[in-house]
Amino acid sequence: MWFAGGPMGPWAGGGRGGGRYGGGRPWGRARRGDVRSAILALLAERPMHGYEIIAELSERTEGLWRPSPGSIYPTLQLLEDEGLISMQSDDAGGKKRFSLTEEGKVAAAEVAKGQAPWEQVAAGAPAGARALRHAMGRLMPVVGQVAMTGGLREYEEAAKILDEARRRLYAVLAGDQVRATSSGPPEGQPGDSPAS
Fold first, then answer.
1. CB–CB of 96/49 below 8 Å?
2. pTM of the shown model
3. Fewer CB atoms inside 10 A, N or C side of the chain?
């Protein structure tokens, strides 16, 4: 899935992969060069620490790409070893931010000659991916609100609506709209056990 780090939280499959369009996506993992270029491009704007870089990439791709710490931090270390970036302590917050060295500025200028790495990711996203992510972003806060403020009746009604939506989505995946109103997901699909 491509909701890495978005409103789906741990259900999103993000945070694990650092895939090309974010963690756990079926169309492959990011090449180190993509992460490397993105870091250089972002540090050309201002010093950042690792999680700022991750958050910036997620924000600039509307959640389509959220590299994992496991892909960001080794790349930061590599860039530091190559003399392209240096680490500096932030006395105020205790965070260690990275900034470009003179050599790093030259490398970042080369990256800037092409399309920004995050724009490449967004441009390559599947058609409709953003619309689906935005729909999920609008849904999850409402589910959370029901969970926080609802009573027994609201819980039961919300559970019925979500179960029906789940069944219909399985039907979409199966390419069989007729099964959208069946009593459960297509046979053999995960999530059709009582514990799901």
1. yes
2. 0.55
3. C
Provide the 3-class DSSP secondary structure of residue 28: coil
Instruction: Kindly report the CATH number assigned to the domain that includes residue 38.
Output: 1.10.10.10
Q: What is the pLDDT of residues 59-74, one digit of tens each?
A: 888 777 888 899 999 9
The answer to whether residues 86 and 153 belong to one domain is no
Q: Which residue has the higher pLDDT, 126 or 24?
A: 126
Nearest-angstrom CA–CA distance, 41 and 44: 5
Rounded Cα distance between 93 and 114, Å, is 34
| Strand positions, DSSP E, 80-131 | 85-89, 96-100
d(CA 170, CA 163): 11
Q: Which tokens belong to 4?
A: 């890495």
